[in-house]
């Protein structure tokens, strides 16, 4: 049975790196963050309306990757896991933080999404500047981290905070994923 594991957290917390590592370790695929592709194409001066377009692209990317997962074993165990670099919670937090509101279509989509595990990346990695990132200051990063944590506390899906250097994060993530995979 397919297990969908989402990696979320503020910018520059190692989400993409962790997704790639986990996909490689578990010999599966991962869903890249669509926001980077969108902002690279249309520019970083985004609007409130752009966030719904980003949400649609993220959902489409997720579906496309899941549809391409290789078939393994018996019919009921065909697809084992997929790792997702951000989900609609990230867009919700982003929208509420920047625009003080979130499109109801995004909220509805969140309510309809089903995941098996969230890995929340802590802000204890050094912030690395790139053209897409907006919040280098620690206070803002802390605030965003707690917004994500608050969202997960109110979710019925299991979650784990991932902290430390890249090796520690990977080890913690594998332990959390192995726990979910063993409950199949």
Question: What does it look like?
Answer:
By secondary structure, this protein is of the alpha/beta class. The protein is about 50% helix and about 10% strand. The chain contains seven helices and five strands. The longest helix is centred in the N-terminal third of the chain and has 21 residues, at about 50-70. About 30% of the residues are buried.
Throw out a few tags for this protein.
single chain; 184 residues; alpha/beta; five-stranded parallel β-sheet; 51% helix; globular
**Rg estimate, integer Å:** 16 Å
Strand arrangement, major sheet: 2-3-1-4-5
**Number of DSSP helices?**
7
Poorly predicted ranges: none
Question: What gross morphology would you assign?
Answer: globular
Q: What fraction strand? A: 5-15%
Number of strands: 5
Structural class call reads: alpha/beta
* Element-level helix/strand string: EHEHHEHHEHEH
**pLDDT averaged residue by residue:** 90
Please outline the helices and strands.
Elements (H helix, E strand, L loop, with lengths): L2 E6 L6 H11 L3 E3 L2 H9 L5 H21 L12 E5 L2 H12 L4 H9 L4 E5 L16 H16 L5 E4 L3 H16 L3
Parallel strand pairs: 1-3, 1-4, 2-3, 4-5
In short:
By secondary structure, the protein is of the alpha/beta class. It is built from 7 helices and 5 strands; from the N terminus they run E-H-E-H-H-E-H-H-E-H-E-H.
